[in-house]
């Protein structure tokens, strides 16, 4: 019997990348959703009948419940997740349907994790924060942490060229992440840090090399300390290419009035202006992504540092690989872990390595 996968928000750049990955690596029947039918037909015809389109607004609760009940797996790609409630996850638990999402904000992650016991009791595997960052980045950290007798510090850095090949939603996510200071795990205690502060020059692989990154509020800022209790510091920093985008983002975070940055119309304006700019600069910078994980800890009685690097030419496609690979493992019954988990607590390193290798994604490791 053919598995059925429902991808909510599957018409966007990230959702369509997830759908394409699933079409490439599984035989599943895929249904993607959007709030209007305007472009659904063109998407449906691209994968030889394997992909269908369904007009669905998440507010249509009865229609949503029916679509979930007719699926074996639901993948939630309808961001930004700053605004989302947990209705989709709750419905999946009630219907006994496995769940993935590409959520990327602390508020949603916190709400989703509250349903761990219900999901476990229902036998539902729900894995949140899949994609590239969070997602593949979290698994890179787990891979690095496992090299140590006692890991002590995690430093995660992300770099995106221009738009990253993603749509307007990713721009919204960036500006929404600048609204409030947030708690970070530093030297064994929670400290409040300002978004897009403390610029740091990090060495990424070619073509990026030395690039500026800044504090940014990501779900892994607080899920990684929970997953790896011996770790006393978790740093998550983000930057853009070209570098002048970093300075513009810094201005938005530190110069613009806070009341303005917390207005939806301001976020929309900044997002559309930024997207127009990146449409132009993408021609020169590309739309790639770099992820760098550096873990410090104790190994054979000595302090050591282990580093992993990943570079991909298309951020949206890399995100599709991150989510699609986990979906494939669930559909093939190679991964089953009832409950609600961030990806670093759900995906074993051997399965992660297998998935990345099968997709031609190379992660380079070295002791520093």
What features would you highlight for this structure?
globular, alpha/beta, 368 residues, seven-stranded parallel β-sheet, 41% helix, seven-stranded mixed β-sheet
Describe the structure in your own words.
- With 368 residues, the chain is an alpha/beta fold.
- The chain is 41% helix and 27% strand.
- It has helices spanning 13-25, 40-44, 61-69, 87-95, 106-113, 116-122, 132-145, 168-176, 220-227, 244-254, 258-261, 264-285, 315-331, 343-346, 349-358; strands at 4-8, 29-34, 51-55, 73-76, 98-101, 125-128, 150-161, 182-186, 189-193, 200-203, 210-215, 233-241, 289-299, 302-312, 339-342, 363-367.
- The longest helix has 22 residues, at 264-285.
Q: DSSP helix count? A: 15
Task: Tell me the strand order in the biggest sheet.
Answer: 3-2-1-4-5-6-15
Question: Which structural class do the helices and strands define?
Answer: alpha/beta
How many whole angstroms does the radius of gyration measure?
20 Å
User: What percentage of amino acids are in beta strands?
Assistant: 25-35%
- Stretches with pLDDT under 50, minimum 5 residues: 40-45
Q: Biggest sheet, in brief?
A: 7 strands, parallel
Overall 3D geometry? globular
The counted number of beta strands is 16
Explain the layout of strands and helices:
Elements: E1 4-8, H1 13-25, E2 29-34, H2 40-44, E3 51-55, H3 61-69, E4 73-76, H4 87-95, E5 98-101, H5 106-113, H6 116-122, E6 125-128, H7 132-145, E7 150-161, H8 168-176, E8 182-186, E9 189-193, E10 200-203, E11 210-215, H9 220-227, E12 233-241, H10 244-254, H11 258-261, H12 264-285, E13 289-299, E14 302-312, H13 315-331, E15 339-342, H14 343-346, H15 349-358, E16 363-367
Parallel strand pairs: 1-2, 1-4, 2-3, 4-5, 5-6, 6-15, 7-12
Antiparallel strand pairs: 7-13, 8-9, 10-11, 11-12, 13-14, 14-16
